[in-house]
Design a protein that fits this description.
alpha/beta; UDP N-Acetylglucosamine Acyltransferase, domain 1; 25 strands; globular; 2 domains; six-stranded mixed sheet; Rossmann fold; about 15% helix; about 210 residues; 3 helices
Amino acid sequence: MLIVGAKGFAKEVLEIFHQIGKVDDIAFYDDVNADIGNKLYNKFPILKSEKEVKVFFQKYGNEFTIGIGNSILRNKLHRKFVELGGSLVSSISKDVQIGNYGVQIGIGANILSKSIISNSVVIGICSLIYYNSIITHDCKIGDYVELSPNSILLGRVKIGSYTQIGANSTILPDISIGKNVIVGAGSVVTKNIPDNEIWIGNPAKFYKSNKNG
């Protein structure tokens, strides 16, 4: 298993694999940070070139998951490592509660401990669901979405792709949030939000346009 990234969120992903007893033959990838060594925790190799990745895939299998949080970057890395011969997989903590009816979780999702996912929920590819997030019935989440810790999505909420929901935010029932939106930490969203905007506050209000994306 290759975890793309070797800092920050990549360490959270490692913990998921530790919990489920799958830490054999794990390696990380980081070709950006010059200060990083050759091993993480003096145990897990850190690959630093595409050539090393191809060798690793041939020797240990081609499964990989994304250990970086930025939504746009997750998309780019997903495409890059598929082109290198990789097969994207999800990482889901054993402490996640997932409903038994009508749940669809896209490939490459990272879902961390204590999250709750109710019935009739759709989660897009390569989304990131942080600790203690709650997704209630009939919610639909797009691709490459990030839900920060303690996010709450109430019934029938829709979240567009590449959107980031800040920590401790609550999205009220039947709200639709567009693509490439940022909802600030601690916000309570009571109105629909169009694409490419940043909203903050309780109740959440328009702050400025989101130029990233």
